[in-house]
Structures are given as structure tokens and as C-alpha cells.
């Protein structure tokens, strides 16, 4: 099964030797393996049969049936006042309740801004390993993170992706300020646009339930405290039926804004079936409810399981921005959403503890994160 060791492998080993870091802590990225010439999926990346994508998942040219397409919300009127705004807010609420995922168009981030970031990020991944490895870490709390898979120290099976990430945690760090020069301007520009979208969508989500007053600090547009950007790079895979780019999981924070790429790969579990998310156009963004919103809304708005499949032809690059509350926020079902017929489904959990449990718990290798808070 193991692919042939190519020139690129040897070159990378030489380069890694120059990185000032203990070699035992470095995990080789999937891009290096693929660039070195790989004709089969190495055993470390082969999923157990029950986790492998179904063959239907891999036919990326098949359009999902209309009833299996996530809602598309036009955000134009979200900046206005009156009935048109209320309508968009209600559409967002319905999408969160029925799907947990929706696409947004006319969101205010120009296609050029997205493409400039994609181009800059491809340049980052195309650099010699030595350059990329300057940012290597497997932690997910560093200001800047070049990583592979999710958590190789704990996983039995690795994910078919490398990633470049940035954390902004107010009062702690701002990785965007110190981003590598070749993509600094582009990540900052993109982040500014996505922050604006996240702020207003977050507010609309809570307004749609009439509960915004409980979250004054969280819903003020522009004051969403924490974000992690992850630029995920999925190289082509010789045997997509055996592996996954990202294994099934829900996102841990409040909400996620994703640029999914025009190369398909993202799938969500809707009513028990894995369905592909096909972007309507190259500038469409995908927004999903993450675990903390499911907890606040006592399960009314769902943090849906999703995963990424690979393909044989093209590299795929998605850009995910994960928003989250501050560390000391205690997240619990909101009082107006709990009554005798809707008892609380989740216990109050401090976000810091939720995150720590998530990243340190071996049993959560399959990332059933909401179980951490479930009553
Ligand atoms: O690449 C994608 O489309 C999704 C990635 C994802 O779900 C994640 O990084 O949490
Ligand atoms: Fe995700």
C-alpha cells in the first residue's frame, strides 16, 4: 500500500533537518507524500470501512436533488431596516432550524478578495517545506499554525489535509498581524469582510428567536471575540473511496463561515444521509451553526455533522473561519427556550473547558463534541 518514496520525500527530510525543532515532534504533511508520487493511500490514512465515503459521494459531477440542497440566503437586505430585513432574518432562522447549514450570496466580500487570498495561500503551500515549516505546530492555539491532519498524536487514522491557520483571541494574540508576508494583506482583507458578515448573521440568528437581549456582549456586530481561520489544503488522492479530507465532526464554536472552493468535497449529514454541498457560484460562502449555538438554543438550531471527501484530479482549498465566544463565557440553554415541554438538553459549560476537553480527549477522536455538554 505504501507509496514509493520519491525525490521530494528525501528533499523534504533534508529540509526538515534544518528546522530548529525536535524531529520526533514533526509529522510529515500529506502534500509532501503526494508530491513525492503516491499511487495508493498509505495505511495510516485508510479509514475503517464504516467511515469510508459511499461510492455515490465520490461522483462529484452529480448534482444533488433540489430537496437536498442547502438553502441559499441573499444577504442584500440584512443591512436595511424594515420588512425586507425581517424576511432575511427569518430565512436565516429557518435555515438554522431545518438544515444547520446555508449558503450566502451578496454578502459583501468581493470575489476578487476571495481569489487573491486563494492565490496567496496556494503560493504558501507551494513553497519549499523549509519555509512552511517555520510555522509548523500541531497545537491549535498558536497565533499562526501550519499543521497536518487534525491531531496526529491522538488519531488512529489521519486526515488527507494540511492547513495554514491563524488565531485572533482578544487580549491574547492576533496571528493575522504576523501572518507570512506572502499572504498577510490577503488574509487581513478577507478576514475584515468575513468579520462583518459573521457579526450581522450572528445577530440575525438570535433575533430570529427573539433572544438577542441575553447575548448583548456576543451579538453586537463587530465584537465577536474569537476567530480561527483555517485554510485547508487537500491534495488529489489516488483512492478517494478509502480516506477522508476531514472526518465527520461538528464545529465547536458559535458559527463557521466557509469558502468551500468550486472543487466539491464538503458533505453534510442531513436526515441520516450524506449530501454534497455544491456552491451556487465561486463567491458563495457557506455558514453553519456550531456547537455553542446548538447549546444556547437548546437544540432548536442544529450543529450538523459534516465531513470532506477527496478526489483524484484536483487539489481543493477551503477557507474556514471558526468563531467562538471568549474563554470565560458559560454557555447554557437560554431561559426563554426552556420550559416544561422543552427541558434543558445541555448543562452550563465554560467555553474554555469545552475546548480543553475537546482537544485533549482521546475518546473524542471521532469528535462527538456535543456529548461533552449533553445532559
Ligand atoms: O473543507 C471544508 O469544506 C470543510 C472543513 C471543515 O469542516 C473544518 O475544517 O472544520
Ligand atoms: Fe467543520
TrEMBL record:
GO terms for molecular function: metal ion binding; oxidoreductase activity. Belongs to the iron/ascorbate-dependent oxidoreductase family. Keywords: Iron, Metal-binding, Oxidoreductase. It comes from Adiantum capillus-veneris. It comes from the Eukaryota. Pfam families: 2OG-FeII_Oxy, DIOX_N. Transmembrane segments: none annotated. The lineage of its organism: Eukaryota, Viridiplantae, Streptophyta, Embryophyta, Tracheophyta. The keyword Transmembrane does not apply. InterPro entries: DIOX_N, IPNS-like_FE2OG_OXY, IPNS-like_sf, Oxoglu/Fe-dep_dioxygenase_dom, Plant_2OG-oxidoreductases. This is Fe2OG dioxygenase domain-containing protein.
